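User: New here, any thoughts?
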Amino acid sequence: MGEDTQPDSGQFVAEYTMVQSIFVRQKNCLLLRADFSPLFVGYYLHLMQHALHPPQEKVETFKQLFAFFTLYVVSRPWNEHHAWTLNVKEPEKVNYFLAGSSLTQDVVGRIFTEDVRDTDVTMLYAQNICRDRETHTSVIPLNTDTPSAWVEEFFRSSEQRQARAFVGEGDVFYLLTAEPDADYDWLHELTAGRVAHIEDEEETKLLETRRFTYRCGCSAERIIPVVRAMMKDFADVLSEQGKLEVSCPRCGASYTITRDMVSGQRSAPDAC
């Protein structure tokens, strides 16, 4: 990542990305809207902290997916956890992983460019996890090639309803979902410019606001029990090198696990 893409800490204006849920009266559509600058800053700081350098062109796609995923999470009930994995085949194989919940008020994600599975079409694997309910998984082939189109196709296939996704000015993103008796003609004719000024043209009502930050919560302390449970696989490396490098599958943060940490003779470092 070049110096021109790194955030300037002196320009931080907010800790959280605030997502608004707005009901568009007469049209029976729900508008999700947010400025994702704070969340993107959190993501860039994470990359800098852990010396992660994903391809910049992949980062731009990831940021759009990240924004639309967060808006989707807000469109769902509070008590759900969601995770998306997009296996993209073109122009280069890449996986985008995203996870988050309104319960924890955080979202996380990473880009995989190595060991990506071959696929004939772009695939979206979506999980909906809720306590006291069986996890629901959707596997959706995507025939489009942009994040906004992927999200709209996901809504048609998995949610069984129409939606429109728009990239606004700066880091503002919009997601509109059709509710019962929605005005589908109006929804299909919308443009990003009209959505940006929707309160000037339509009767709207702010329903709620949820806030999100980029956070994984991983730590060496959480990883150590996994290493202990798989000691047969790691014993040789720990014996020969005295340490093991472990990468978090959710955010890519890397942790050095030593033999003393596994044996409990040394404390683990702080969480990510």
